[in-house]
Amino acid sequence: MQYTLRQLAYLVAVADHGSVTAAANALYTSQPGISSAIAQLEAQFGLQFFIRHHAKGVSLTPAGQSFVAAARNLLAHAEDLSQHASALSQSLQGNLELGCFTTIAPIFLPRLLAAMREDYPDISVRLHEGDTEQLQQALLSGQTELALLYDLDLAPSLYRQTLQTVLPYVLLPVDHPLAGQAAVSLQDLAPLPMVLLDLPHSREYFLSVFRLQGLEARVRHKTVNFELVRGLVAAGNGYALLNLRPRTPQSYAGDQLVCLPIAEEVPALNIVLAWPQELRLTRRAEAFVTLCERNISRLG
């Protein structure tokens, strides 16, 4: 007997919800039906997809992780094919699973999604925010189809479409002694207290800006929250290095901030859309890629 799309959908649901019971509730179907579908798939392919934990649900085996990622891709294209066949002359429809780096999201996504809704009103974009590690894992597992993030230590298996290149800058409180300069030297910053955006890969990048000049930053505070970095700097707790600039020069508390270029030559970062190289994008994803290429330069 050949496998069915329904069986694959049941398999993915159990992987997403962590148990047969939760998957059955989410899909409004019976637990025995889901268990039977998974057993048939395991028998057909000679694989074990899950490790069963008594009273604690299930977890994916390594084979299960790979198979579920492929199943997600197949289901996405099956949905795409169905819509394409029934509505060749109509607007695109369906769900687009989109990952976005946590600091990029508030600056770019609101207007990108507004433009997406205007151009493709029948596409529903479901957001998954995270850091670089979380977004890569979501892409490689098939949980998301695209991710908007920095091209910073990305896996070789991911394709990157560059949208914008950004240089790091110095963030200072408005009354800082260096705030009146046209540019700030890393030599002047190194002895001063730093507020570090402490996200995976981001922290190494910002510290490497100093190390490439033979310097070491003096970190006073670390936080994963972009706006807390800005707030700490605005309140006089130190300076920060960041890449993206909100349009407002104020912290949440209303304190004024100054953004200044770095005097030395420093490494830039590319903002990219990424997806697995072996993945054939759905029409929904292709539409979002095109929209980003057309709009993102005027948003950041």
Provide structural commentary.
Keywords: DNA-binding, Transcription, Transcription regulation. One of its GO terms (molecular function) is DNA binding. Pfam families: HTH_1, LysR_substrate. This protein has three domains: 5-68, Arc Repressor Mutant, subunit A; 92-162 and 272-298, D-Maltodextrin-Binding Protein, domain 2, CATH 3.40.190.10; 168-267, D-Maltodextrin-Binding Protein, domain 2 (3-Layer(aba) Sandwich), CATH 3.40.190.10. Helices cover 41% and strands 23% of the residues. It has helices at 5-17, 20-27, 31-45, 62-86, 105-119, 132-141, 186-189, 202-211, 226-234, 283-295, and strands spanning 50-53, 57-60, 94-101, 123-130, 146-150, 158-166, 169-173, 193-197, 218-223, 240-242, 257-261, 269-276. The strands form four sheets. Strands 4-3-5-12-6 form a five-stranded mixed beta sheet, with helices on both faces. A three-stranded antiparallel beta sheet has the order 10-7-11, with helices on one face. The chain has a two-stranded antiparallel ribbon with strand order 1-2. Helix 1 crosses helix 4 (62-86). The N and C termini lie far apart (53 Å).
Detail the poorly predicted runs: none
Strand count, sense and barrel status of the largest sheet are: 5 strands, mixed
The CATH class of the largest domain is identified as Alpha Beta
The CATH topology of the largest domain is what?
Answer: D-Maltodextrin-Binding Protein, domain 2
Helix content: 40-55%
User: What order do the SSEs take from the amino end to the carboxyl end, as H and E?
Assistant: HHHEEHEHEHEEEHEHEHEEEH
